[in-house]
Amino acid sequence: MDYRAMWESLGMDVKTHDLLCEALPGAFGSVYLSQDNRPEGMDYFYSVVAAIHGLRPAELVEHKKNGGKVVGTFCIHVPDEIPIAAGAIATGLCSGSQFWVPGGEKKLPVATCPLIKASLGARFDRTCPFFRLADMFVGENTCDGKKKAWEILAEDAPVHVMDIPQMKRPEDFAHWENELKGYLKKCEELTGNKVTPAKLREAIILVNKKRKALQRLASFRKLDNIPITGKDMLLVTQIAFYDDPARITEQIHKLCDELEERAKNNFSSFPKGTKRILLTGTPLSIPNWKMHHIIETSGGAVVCEEMCTGIRYYEKCVDESGSTIDEMIHNLAQRYMGGIHCACFTPNAERIDDIKRLVKEYKADGVIDLNLKFCNIYDIEGFFVERELKAAGIPVLGIETDYTDQDSEQLKTRVGAFIEMLGN
Amino acid sequence: MDYRAMWESLGMDVKTHDLLCEALPGAFGSVYLSQDNRPEGMDYFYSVVAAIHGLRPAELVEHKKNGGKVVGTFCIHVPDEIPIAAGAIATGLCSGSQFWVPGGEKKLPVATCPLIKASLGARFDRTCPFFRLADMFVGENTCDGKKKAWEILAEDAPVHVMDIPQMKRPEDFAHWENELKGYLKKCEELTGNKVTPAKLREAIILVNKKRKALQRLASFRKLDNIPITGKDMLLVTQIAFYDDPARITEQIHKLCDELEERAKNNFSSFPKGTKRILLTGTPLSIPNWKMHHIIETSGGAVVCEEMCTGIRYYEKCVDESGSTIDEMIHNLAQRYMGGIHCACFTPNAERIDDIKRLVKEYKADGVIDLNLKFCNIYDIEGFFVERELKAAGIPVLGIETDYTDQDSEQLKTRVGAFIEMLGN
Fold first, then answer.
1. Which residues of B touch A384 (CB under 8 A)?
2. Is residue A388 within a helix (H) or strand (E), and if so which, with residue range?
3. Contact call for A376 and B150, based on CB within 8 A
4. pTM passes above 0.95
């Protein structure tokens, strides 16, 4: 299907965007289609990626034609439940391609993390339909780079900033509840719809269902014979940030049903002796498949991502017990602040506990601590992560990288050596 | 006087510290003693620097012998008034020398700002008496680098973290008032002294007096013939973070009396045609005199620092009208949060208004926007600062540097060209 007319109507720079459209299939093909024995249930996700700037954006266009609104977010601390309860569509906006980085560097310092640069570049270069379709951009004060980047973005787009606390004391939770209430009001204003307790409850259940589906999918990675690659799991997780929640929930369960069969037959997506790697660190936004591809072509299997694009996104559900808006906001605050151990908090020792627990649960042979270049908070926290894992006898490799391919060969060598070192 | 016995008793690494003691006089001499026509009133400040790790630390040792406590701080958002009211001595701890950077890099990523690296290095290497003497280290969540660095520092030193809001809405001021109350309680616990309204009021007046003295000193820089160099003003400001507040107030006024005489005679510390430069950006901790020296040996005079080590430190006084602790805490919060336009806040447009106003008040010919390497918040905000100044017809030069001398020649060339460009 040809989406050019739609892209043009969205005010996109279609000519520049064509370059991305030309490059993506090749990149996707070499990373994904090269895999043997792909589950059939992945077809849906592959088809979504194949038309990533077409299929879903066309649905958003349709939604807007009917008076609906689109809310774009950049962070898993920001609850989708609230815009959904207001009748809006929530979509992730984090950008994972080097394609958008130079556009961001026109206004941001080079010494900014590639995720932030790419996100702003996607907006300013008009080369991403999601960045044209969002009626409200929800920024958050999680890190210095984002906090200040929203000021630049706000000159070109309607930005609402959520002030995430930096600590997790009782007064900080109270502050976050207030921020969520402000967000709810903003979403009501944007959509013109009142968020009723019934609507919010419905949204909480809807998003929890997506989480439970992802939990079910992840559980297969705990098996000795893992019936799905880390790359495929990552792709499903990434798409979960964009796709219709009910539909993707169904598709994930369909995939899980197939994996159930595979599991019965002790089918493994990896050859015997493949080393099990837990990835921790900064998020991997679509189409950032770089590290997974390197690991899984170097004798390793990614069994878990202790990342925003991983466990932190789906491992914990929101308590569904509340009946008033205030109670549900309280439950959302508990989940979206207490339940996420991001390096933006100080202190953040729970993250290290999480990694150690996940290493056991997913039987990881080693951990790769991955840092996007110029991400200060994860970079500094890496000091503790790597020290504590070593102290616990867990092999760990620290890697810093960006969205370019310039370091691929070096990373392959380092990752290969690390995996070899994990022994038998 | 020989302070070696004191340094040893403080558990310092005296041998490594000797290297610093050997280097400092040369550095100080070439930057400061090379100046012609230095005011006699600067002698006090020169003598303080000459024995920076001796004179004042000896006073702190004496204070502690008598049961007193020392509170070390890293940020001008943290009010000295509170520890002073509790009977403690407050001292600045920010470090401005490359000497301490490698020590910080042992635990912090290289891509961290030199101020943070040097501060941690000074503690971990045991080469700064102030870092041995502080009974409480007060960190603050101003930037990602500091926020996460306190976690590392806290493994070796007693750290109290103050959570500075990231925005300036009414609820953020309320949050900051709470943080100040918590700080007051901490200081009471540390010293065993109750902070009474009378004591707090006294401390507010004491610190205001120091501010007023610095304001008086700065006012001479508004004259057409400036009777004091920017380097000397910077040194006085830097020492104000460490010295006894009453004594330095007196010494600054003594210096001002002398400058008064100079002003009457239209004496200028600079040759005719010297260009007036306003510096804005990240702080210049002692002994970081690099940019001032380059500017003032390249045909420029620094007339104002829109910096933490400048205007932001002394331009605004705390309202002295309160009579209860709560009222005074409110006044302190207004001054220490509302009155400081740090790039850690979002948005922070008031800073640009400040720069434009100061350019007029100090009749600056141009602005140098100075960024310490890897300081994200000022780096990103520089986008607005430089754009808005250019739009207002104010020449501006953006410079990024660190504590090393490696870029000195390049900076001299760039600064020299900028000053030449300012014309006649």
1. 151-152
2. helix A376-391
3. no
4. yes
